[in-house]
Structures
1.
Amino acid sequence: MNKKKSVLIGCYYTYFIAGAMSLVIGAVLPSLMEKCNLSYAEGGILLSAHSIGFLICSTLTGLLAELFGRKRTVVLISILIPVALFGLAVTQNPIWLFVFLLFTGFGRGAVNNTNNITVSALADGAAGPVNILHSFFAVGGCLAPALVALFLNLRLGFEAALILLAILGIMAVVTYLLIDIDSVQPTGQKERKKLDVSFLKLPDFYLIFGIMLFYLCSETSINGWLTTYLNDTGLMPAEIAPLMVSLMWLVMIAGRLLVAWISKKVPVYLMLLTLSGGAAVMYGIFTVTHNPVFIPLLILCIGLFLAGIYPTSVSALNRTVDFSAFGMGLAMGGAGIGSIIMPMITGFVSQNVTMSAGMVCIWVTVVLMLVCSAVVWLRNRKHGAQGEER
């Protein structure tokens, strides 16, 4: 196996673990809240702890990678993933829950930044391989909630699922030790004599950043609150509700593979506009639907349209910042602010109004994502399939 292929496979596996770790949090949230007697607002703070860690590490990983190399940086930080999962399985202290969820965010931020930059560099900025990378994230995101549901049905407890994922997380750290990600550089990348921040002058940088920001607002909140919403409103029983998250991520696998295939034929910004528009319509219908027959169908549609937005945005952003680890880290970390604030807003509204009202708040962020997609498409509609930046 050649070096580039081993790096690609390693990135796919570690991103699979990142997806499983990220999505298992929402699946076990109702159990954690019950175990520690937490309110909706406190549950929202716990979800935001993961996002705070993601924000901090997404930003710092880019800078640290420029200084010390991607491999050394990601190995040291990703160790926190198995530590955190073991901790979540055994603690009953809300403060430690917050700390361990912060650690999960640190680990995800490092893996997210490192793998997206590495795979995009291997693909020289093409959207297809990045969408395939995110399909592996989706596979992990699909299997983790299903694993929790299975263990709950077998009366093994959610803790057993967390311990199993922690063991797989240790294997992810070993994988990083075995692959040479620092050897991967994009074709034709300009040698950097100093830190390049010229991308900060480009309007497209801020528009793509906006798409990523509002995507993370909506995705993180849906992932974190969907199980609780379906369970507490009586739309789904506790044993079935986590499977709806798995259902959404199952179709996201197919959606990302589909986007990877059509990305060679459809202009990148037109694709972002279409996906954002579809997500806004489907999620809007979901918020006013209480028929348990239609809910799974709507969740399928939401997952299909959300599937390709983030990886396609990453691909477009990478070209905009000329594959700068600092630029990618700045955008990914900054976009992580949305995943901190929105789960807390959803929890606060759910606590003080209704759970349904909290879910409606998420729809606003999906609409804002659509607005950013429309503007960047209008700016670039004359530039062809590659969506060159202006």
2.
Amino acid sequence: MYQFVGFQFFQRGTQRLIGDIPNVFFHFVETYDLIVTRFDAALKDVGGCQTCETCFKTGKACSFDDDFNTIAPAILEADAVVFSMPVYWYSIPAQIKGVIDRMFSFVVGGKEIAGKECAVISCCEEDDMSVFDGVRVPMERSAALTKWKMVGEVLIPGVLNAGDIEKTDGCKQAAALAEKF
């Protein structure tokens, strides 16, 4: 059965920004009886990679025992990984970036992760689409490095206040993205 892992970043106040877009995406995916595992990065304790290169040598993905060791098996088993986040200071929120950086453990540990599918769902305050470059480019380069297929992106600009996301077609775009899987 096809398995999804979804990483979202909801911290106090950010749910009002990105709204129901990730929920619409995952609800649509679940209607196909696919297995979905979701992690809220804001509630996980995942530090940055220490580049110690002892990955998987202790029986865990990382020698530093934090929540990445519970996330790593889900990534390994997943057929698709979806990252959902608002843009923070023109970049990826630190909590999700920590998960992405720790994916280095799969490379060092010799784990086969090529062939997965992935997607990005994001929103930002400004109307300028180039604001998404700080999220889009690292995600696209990470997908290329890991040999994952980037299935699509839902990038919604102009979202600052509670309710702004409902004035966009973001939920419609999320449903269309889910259909691509």
3.
Amino acid sequence: MDFKSGWKLIFLPDWNLEPATGNSFMAINQNHLFEELKGVKCAIVEKDAIKERVDFLKQLLEFNQYTVIVVASPPPKAVPATPPPPASSRAEATTEAAITIPEAPLAPPVPETFTVGVTDVTFNSINAIFGRLLKAPGGHIVTLAYWQQKEKEPQDDVPYFDSK
């Protein structure tokens, strides 16, 4: 269509903007993930965390007034064992009977891990740490080393790039 002013009207197609299906939602990037935990849409704080880490994060995030939801992570997929090849002749069968094939050692038990999320979908741990938005129970601001549990108390007076 032409208008007198020289502008043209362009019709754009309708974009299908339906939400993602399943338990995961579309993320801005890999640093800002969402999942449905226990039926509630949550921002993922950490995946595959061990029990001690979950206890630390839950205590810290609840101190900062976040509602924390923790669920068990699914176990990793096991690789199926390959069966021995079938014997093709009698001679090979007698030779294989004399040779014992040692069994593969059992894999160590997989530690129980958890997924930690908060119900505030705007939460992003990177932004919270470097934006100095979280406080530790002692009143200090949470630092990266404290978040990673490299130090017992956050030293917020020392810049992270100076501490070596």
